[in-house]
Amino acid sequence: MTENGFINAQDVMFAYEPEEGREPRNVLDGVTISIQRGEFVALLGHNGSGKSTMAKMFNAMLLPTEGKVFVDGMDTVDEAVLYEIRRRVGLVLQNPDNQLVASVVEEDVAFGPENLGIPPEEIRVRVDEALKAVGMYDFRLNAPYKLSGGQKQRIAIAGIIAMQPDCIVLDEPTAMLDPRGRSEVLETIHRLNEEKGITIVLITHYMDEAVQAGRVIVMDGGHVLLEGGPREVFSQVELLKKHQLDVPQATELTYRLQGMGFPMPCTLTTEECVEALAAYLPPVQAVP
Amino acid sequence: MIRDIALGQYIPGDSLVHRMDPRVKIVLVFLFIVFLFVAQNFVSLLLLVVSVAACILLSGVPMRHYLKSVKAILFIVLFTSVLNLFYGGGETLLKIGFMEIKSGGVSNAIFIAVRIISLILLSAVLTFTTSPTSLTDAIERLMKPLKVFHIQVHEIAMMMTIALRFVPTLLEETDKIMSAQKARGADLESGGLVQRAKALLPILIPLFVSSFRRAYDLAMAMECRCYHGGEGRTKMKVLHAGKRDAVACVVVVVICAAVVVSNIVLPTVLS
Fold first, then answer.
1. Of A134, A107, A110, A127, nearest to A198 (Cα)?
2. How far apart are the first and last CA of chain B?
3. Which of A112, A161, B101, B176 could in theory staple to A130 by disulfide, Cβ–Cβ 3.0 to 4.6 A?
4. What are the chain A neighbours of B233 within 8 Å (beta carbons)?
5. Which residues of chain A are under the pLDDT cut of 70?
6. Which helix or strand (DSSP H or E) is residue A91 part of?
């Protein structure tokens, strides 16, 4: 494994406190993940695969029972650097309603920097910048409860950006949003990744979100099942299906056509799929 | 339906009152309320009423918001006024059976009504023009001396901030749960008091459960954002009292002094 990754998780094991009379079960069973600076990684897996638990390892909300997690060379077990780690790796949670603290948007965004003890004038600058980065500057004086889910989630992201992190981990940020909110949030995180070079770890169970990532890690039963570029990962349709994981619809279609004897390429997006199919159609005579 | 509660709702704006230091506002409102009860004659009461009206005009908040908050307490005002009609001396104005209304009673009733309404309007000016965060912030600063008695001032202020933040969220949720229970055939409107209280249980239990879940989530989100108590924490908005606050203080002190003077010079109406 690469030692120079921004986040290095080495053989991480983790078990929650077992209930009375139950055997402790490892939620994470020897996970080794390395995330490079500036990457856009999608962490896939269905419920109970350990992906959310893994997210909490990245910013020391949970500590491994065995194994190690290093963030920028710092061990997450080390209490002395706890807040330094949490500043560098921000975590955005699923429910946008439950992670906003203040009743005014800009004051909520200021919450993180205030905790870090940043001087007031600089907080002001950071808050304005963060709100502009997520396209919510015009809403800075609004009350969060009047905003839509997608807008609230963008405020939550702004609250993390104001701490000037190197990496943002998002734990199913779009699970509770409508399609419009989803695309707002996804657009925002892609832009942050490209323009500001912020490392993004997107935890999701939406395949179409994962397709847009630079690298995909598939988790199942506390293990890393597959890892690689989206095309590499989703071409293994059989393996994914065996673990009850979906593939993008376009991939599914071309996969089935392949099974029926059509020599199709593996496609990831609807556009690609349309093009591949169009190649099979006889050329249409233009109607005069 | 339960969402239009006027009290404690901040209305953003940029008026003179909005821009005042919240600490000064709290102290002055408190002082003013005390003097509403110090005032013993109509001249001083009129002075105070005019001042309250001036505050309302200066706040630049639409009248309907104030009317709404007065409407909410109208019953209490009427009730206490009517009760007060029968107290107090002076000459008898009206006699119904064994009940007598005397002139002292009438002025008593007017005084109490004006006092309660002014009190509500004044606190409305405060909450309308001050964002909940700066309000709690100001309370935190004002209570700082209590740290000597080992009172966790920062924690109390943080709890207030969060409580205020979640009021609309929980109201919305209550609405949703009520609709959900109604859809399942729950009867919330009929029956006696005991039956109705019992009918509330299926609403309160889910509300409690979800509140705990929210609290857990929020605590985690706060920890993710490096929250570790009040130690070493800074504030984006630094409170500083400026010239306009000094002017406001002087004006209020003058008014209060006038009230005291009029109490000494003019004969009291209440007796």
1. A134
2. 45
3. A161
4. 114-115, 117
5. 1-4, 286-288
6. strand A89-92
Cβ contact B224–A110 (<8 Å): no
Closest residue in B to A171 (Cα) is: B221
Task: Name which of B143, B191, B218, B161 is nearest B10 in CA terms.
Answer: B161
- Which of A93, A111, A168, A169 has the highest number of chain B CBs within 10 A, making it the mutation to test binding with B? A111
Beta pairing, strands B92-96 & B99-102: antiparallel
Q: Does A107 touch chain B (CB under 8 A)?
A: yes
Q: Would you state the torsion angle of the CA atoms of residues A204, A208, A210, A212, taken in this order, to the nearest 10 degrees?
A: -140
Locus of tokens 């008026």: B15
| Among A15, A5, A24, A19, CA closest to A64 | A15
Is residue B270 pLDDT above 70, yes or no?
no
Reading the block at residue A121, the tokens are 């004038």
Radius of gyration of chain A from Cα atoms? 21
The string of pLDDT tens digits covering residues A60-89 is 999 999 999 999 989 999 889 999 999 999
Q: Report DSSP state, residue A224.
A: E
Q: Residue B236's pLDDT is what?
A: 84
Residue B211: the pLDDT is 93
Q: Phi and psi (nearest 5°) for B243?
A: -65, -45
Nearest CB to B238 within list A106, A120, A144? A120
Please calculate the CA angle B214-B127-B177 and round it to the nearest 5 degrees: 30
The predicted structure's pLDDT at residue A70: 92
Degrees, nearest 5: CA angle B186-B191-B192: 135
For residue A163, list chain B residues with Cβ-Cβ distance below 8 A: 225-226
Partners of A102 on chain B (C-beta within 8 Å) are: 133, 161, 165
Around B146, how many Cα atoms within 13 Å sit in the side-chain half-sphere? 12
Sign of the Cα pseudo-torsion (B133, B136, B142, B143, in order): negative
The predicted pLDDT at position A40 comes to 94
What tokens appear for A120 in the block?
């007031």
pLDDT at B30: 92
- What structural domains does chain A harbor? 38-63+74-229 (3.40.50.300)
Position B23, amino acid: R
B188-244 per-position pLDDT tens digit: 777 788 888 888 888 899 999 999 999 999 999 999 999 988 788 888 888 788 888
DSSP line for B179-239: HHHHHTT---SSS-HHHHHHHHHHHHHHHHHHHHHHHHHHHHHHHHTT---STT---SS--
- Chain B residue whose CA is closest to A91: B224
- For residue B142, the one-letter residue type is L
Q: pLDDT tens digit string along A122-150?
A: 999 999 999 999 999 999 888 888 899 99
> Model pTM?
0.79
